[in-house]
Amino acid sequence: MSTFADRIIAFNQQLDFTGALPPGISIMNPFKESGSAMQVSTQFYRKYYSDDHPRHLILGINPGRFGSGMTGVSFTDPKRMIAQCQIPFEGPLTHEPSSEYVYDMIGAFGGIQEFYKQFYIHSVCPLGFTITGSNGKETNYNYYDTPALQKAAYPFIIENIQKQLDIGFETDVCFCFGTGKNEAFLRKLNDEKRFFKEIIALEHPRYIMQYKAKSKQNYIDKYIREFNKVLL
User: Which positions fall inside the Uracil-DNA glycosylase-like domain (predicted)?
Assistant: First the structure.
């Protein structure tokens, strides 16, 4: 019988965006572009998901270059992969503020083993996007940043939310990281597709770290309250 780890790894292996993107936008698929991301994420999921315990989904926006774009694990940058998850990573030790917040929250929740036994974090769009500016600098891009990109990504998003649900996650509640455009998109999509009975939106970790860092503990407390309501 397959475990959550087996099914998640298989999901990551099959991820492939074949649609047409707007000019200047590139897809970011760490599982095809980086041998280390598949290797490291496989170790991670074998370590924390080799069972069939019920879990709830948490959906962020889409992968970023310095977190899951490096490790293949949502909201887990190389620094956290090594120091917190105790899994080796050979490559640039990038830092993602969102990852810092998430692992502080996980510590307050009760630790990595306990958190990942209850939850699985991924994204509304499971692959990321980048745009290259006139200065040649590559930056992260969100699936909702332009109507054209959102339209291009829409079939891919629907297909892969369903594939993640087929892994076996709970559908009574889905947590959404982001109380702005990500929440609005996911709620509208859920109204159409009825993936989940309820969506609970929480402020995005990046927003908290960028604009509300002094109140970080208050947000951590809020996250844990909302998580525990569902688990009780």
Answer: 48-227
What is the per-residue pLDDT for 78?
94
Tens-digit pLDDT profile for residues 168-206: 999 999 999 999 999 999 999 999 999 999 999 999 999
Q: Is the pTM of this model over 0.90?
A: yes
Of 53, 44, 117, 114, nearest to 74 by C-alpha is: 44
Please give the tally of structural domains in the chain. Answer: 1
pLDDT digits (tens, 9 = 90+) for 112-127: 999 999 999 999 999 9
Owning domain of residue 90: 24-231
